[in-house]
Amino acid sequence: MQQARVAESTKGSVSDRLLAQMRGDILSLALIPGRVISERDLEAIYGASRTPVRQALLQLANEGLVIRAGRGYAVASIDAQELVETFEYREIVEAAAVRLACERASEADLDAIQATIDRGLSDTSPETWFEIGADVHVMIASLSGNGFLRDAVQDIVIRIARARWLLVSTEAGQQEAHREHSEIVSLIRERQADGAEEAIRRHGRNVRDQIMRAVGEGRRQLGAHGIVVKGA
């Protein structure tokens, strides 16, 4: 996969763009888990200077996407046990967020989320569905009016993103995701806190189970490509 180059601009925009490109390449598995990456290698790949590369690596380390490896870094492995724990955390956080959303969400906000969900009906590309799945959960958490819950869901979305790329996007899966997301929004609109909480818990468990099956079924193939899947 050919790497995108960083356009020369102001220091801030170069740093932001480099971070987004590196994060995207890690999430899409273009930079495979376990790969050792040095600052010098990344400078050559992305056409960037050392300072923004170093800043990006520090941020990606905070997000758990890279780890220290000797004097350099390595792309973090996919850890099956960490995924299980992340989904447990996600269920607790999203349950709290959706209950607050039932109290605080405006009709305009809910219309905006539904429009994002419906975008997948006209664009069925895996990339679009990947983005929608992440955006919808952060948008729902934002409806809580609690920045800590929103940021927690944003962090969770990043941490499970690479594993989500392992799922094969099918028409049936897309229809199910659209139905479940729409159901959650509808229940928030009706101010049914118990129903909305149950719906978002059920949806999270469905996604968790699909991802864990994909990790288990792909373990041998992933290992052959140098991807280390840790945990049970």
Automatic annotation (TrEMBL):
Keyword tags: DNA-binding, Transcription, Transcription regulation
Annotated PROSITE patterns: HTH_GNTR
Claim: Cytoplasm is one of the keywords in the record: no
Single GO molecular function: DNA binding
Keyword Metal-binding included in the entry's annotation: no
Record SMART domains: FCD, HTH_GNTR
Protein origin, superkingdom: Bacteria
Pfam (any one): FCD
HTH gntR-type domain sequence ranges: 12-78
PANTHER family: TRANSCRIPTIONAL REGULATOR, GNTR FAMILY, UXU OPERON TRANSCRIPTIONAL REGULATOR
Name of the featured protein: FCD domain-containing protein
Organism this protein belongs to: Aurantimonas aggregata
Lineage of producing organism: Bacteria, Pseudomonadati, Pseudomonadota, Alphaproteobacteria, Hyphomicrobiales
